[in-house]
Design a protein that fits this description.
Blueprint (H helix, E strand, L loop, with lengths): L2 H12 L21 H12 L4 H11 L3 H19 L7 H12 L8 H12 L5 H10 L5 H14 L4 H11 L4 H13 L3 H14 L4 H10 L5 H13 L4 H13 L3 H14 L6 H11 L3 H14 L4 H13 L3 H14 L4 H13 L3 H13 L5 H13 L3 H14 L4 H13 L3 H14 L4 H13 L3 H14 L3 H13 L3 H17 L7 H11 L4 H10 L5
Helix pairs in contact: 1-5, 1-6, 1-8, 2-4, 3-4, 5-8, 5-10, 6-7, 8-9, 9-10, 10-11, 11-12, 12-13, 13-14, 14-15, 15-16, 16-17, 16-18, 17-18, 18-19, 19-20, 20-21, 21-22, 22-23, 23-24, 24-25, 24-26, 25-26, 26-27, 26-28, 27-28, 28-29, 28-30, 30-31
Length: 549
């Protein structure tokens, strides 16, 4: 295990612990430029300026006065850990490195040479240490200390024998905390969540005061799980300044739609450091979900100011404009995302949606097709292309895209509803009814699909089923369309008196409940007049109930 190897170990460790993310600095000691200076700087920070002892320890180690240096170093580490508890949120690599340093002065004489080589390789650029490590590990490793050093070396090398060595070590020392932590970290890196939860649980049982294990176990749980919140709470109880756990808890609250709780945690991170991960972006999105658009815009702009070349900031701000129904402003910002990263299908989809709702279906379809070309051949994109063609009255063309979407995702009720409406436009009523029935089978509480199905039955001349499905829709959502479908179907059945009563009741109901009466109710009656069907009855209802000519 060389100096280069120790450096690799520490750099990899930095990825797990933002608390220790500091640049190397020469002022910590003579020629002090190796990776340990990152950790050293954190130790100095925790010592609050009382770091002369630490600097002297590094100097003695660089002068190869290992025993003297180690005594001073351990005192410094103990003092720093007592003040800031910096080890409570470290991954295996850092935790093991610190722990091996702390016990290096208390080991038996057989491991003394290895310990000196380990310390020397950690603090100096002495390449001669290669031979010491190679010769030591060429023999049979028997002691716990030497086995731990070897495991640390294998981690740094990403050695394929690591799992075998780790299992062998745990068979001899099943309660060794750091080895269990390594096993848990490995499962996490391999995305074996169930196994990782079990391994981190073992870590917690061995050392319940270790915040990192709670934080990592919480991170393993399935999205939208309350269990993660409990573990993040525990980690933060042990270390209130554990900002990574705080951010993770906020993210979990956000995924659970608990936006106010999420904002509270994100704000704590924000006050510490504005550009902490994606805190300003997530604040913006949480405020957007709460319809607090002014605050959403403020934090969206802050993220853009922090990361002006990152498309995510413009994407977040565009989503705020989209929710405010300012679709062209949203489209402009999605265009900025596309300029920065032109190969991301999601940006084209979002801009296409903005154009679609801004009544620019011709522009929208270009974006949806571009997203398709870039590899997003999902059912959602196919359906969006179909919707644009429907809006352009290209009904036959839209059907092929709806069917393509159904082939990929057969249980999407929205696509079946769109297919229902398209068949109605083409007067292919049996196919419209079949599509409508498929839609409500998938979602029995889908009120608009029930309404559209009822209209398909009306057009097909089945007035009883039109009334039946209209009432089912009305029981779910009180809107004008199913009301007047019921009244119109009753009229077509020849029940004029009952139809008059229904029209009168529904008009009054809409006025009392401030439900907008759409123009379709009168247009349907005028259609009957144009077809010379129930002319006098329709004229009577239009004039005496709707008060129109």
């Amino acid at each position: 295990m060389t100096k280069r190897l120790i450096t690799i170990l520490l750099i990899v460790g930095l990825l797990y612990s933002p608390v220790l993310s500091f640049s190397a600095s020469k002022h910590l000691g003579i020629g002090y430029t190796n990776a340990f200076s990152n950790l050293g700087r954190e130790v100095k920070k925790q010592l609050n300026g009382k770091s002369a002892e630490f600097n002297e320890a590094i100097l003695k180690i660089e002068q190869k006065k290992f025993n003297d240096g180690l005594i001073l170093l351990n005192k410094s580490l103990v003092n720093a850990l007592a003040v800031g508890r910096i080890s409570s949120n470290l991954s295996y690599r850092y935790y093991e490195f610190l722990d091996l340093l702390k016990i290096s002065g208390t080991i038996g004489k057989d491991d003394k040479k290895l310990a000196d080589a380990f310390i020397n390789a950690s603090f100096t650029d002495d390449a001669d240490m290669d031979d010491i490590f190679n010769s030591y590990f060429a023999g049979t490793i028997t002691s716990e200390y030497s086995s731990r050093v070897k495991l640390l070396a294998l981690v740094g090398e990403n050695n394929p024998n690591l799992t075998t060595e780790l299992n062998a070590f745990l068979s001899r020392y099943p309660s060794n905390f750091s080895a269990n932590l390594l096993k848990a970290d490995k499962y996490f890196a391999e995305k074996k969540w169930k196994e990782a939860v079990g391994a981190f649980t073992q870590c917690v049982s061995i050392m319940p005061q270790y915040a990192y294990a709670y934080y990592m176990r919480g991170s393993c749980y399935t999205l939208m799980s309350e269990k993660s919140i409990d573990d993040f709470d525990k980690a933060l109880t042990l270390q209130p300044t554990y900002y990574e756990a705080l951010y993770a808890r906020a993210s979990q609250y956000q995924s659970l739609d608990k936006y106010r709780d999420a904002i509270s945690d994100y704000m704590k991170c924000y006050k510490k450091k504005k550009n902490y991960f994606l805190v300003t972006y997530n604040l913006s999105q949480c405020y957007k979900e709460l319809k607090m658009m002014d605050s959403a815009m403020v934090y969206a702009d802050e993220y853009i100011a922090i990361s002006p070349e990152a498309p995510l900031g413009y994407y977040g701000k565009a989503n705020v404009y989209f929710d405010k129904e300012e679709y062209l402003k949203a489209a402009d910002l999605f265009s900025r995302c596309i300029t920065l990263k032109p190969q991301v299908p999601r940006y084209y989809i979002s801009r296409g949606e903005s154009y679609y709702f801004a009544d620019s279906a011709s522009l929208a379809i270009k974006d949806f097709k571009r997203a398709f070309e870039l590899g997003d051949s999902t059912a959602y994109v196919s359906r969006l292309i179909g919707e644009c063609l429907y809006k352009q009255k290209q009904y036959e063309a839209s059907i092929s895209y709806y069917k393509q979407a159904i082939k990929t995702a057969p249980n999407n009720e929205l696509t079946w509803e769109s297919l229902n409406l398209t068949y109605i436009k083409l007067k292919r009523y049996p196919e419209a009814i079949e599509a409508g029935l498929r839609s409500i089978k998938i979602d029995t509480a889908y009120s608009s699909a029930l309404t559209n199905l009822s209209w398909a039955y009306y057009c097909a001349g089945d007035y009883d089923k039109c009334i039946f499905y209209s009432y089912k829709s009305l029981n779910l959502t009180k809107t004008a369309v199913p009301m007047f479908n019921i009244a119109l179907a009753t009229l077509r059945k020849g029940q004029f008196d009952k139809a008059k009563k229904l029209y009168s009741e529904f008009v009054n109901d809409c006025k009392v409940n401030k439900i907008k009466i759409n123009d379709g109710a009168i247009a349907d009656l005028k259609d009957l007049i144009d077809q010379k069907l129930m002319v006098n009855e329709s004229k009577f209802i239009i004039k005496n109930i709707f008060g129109k000519e």
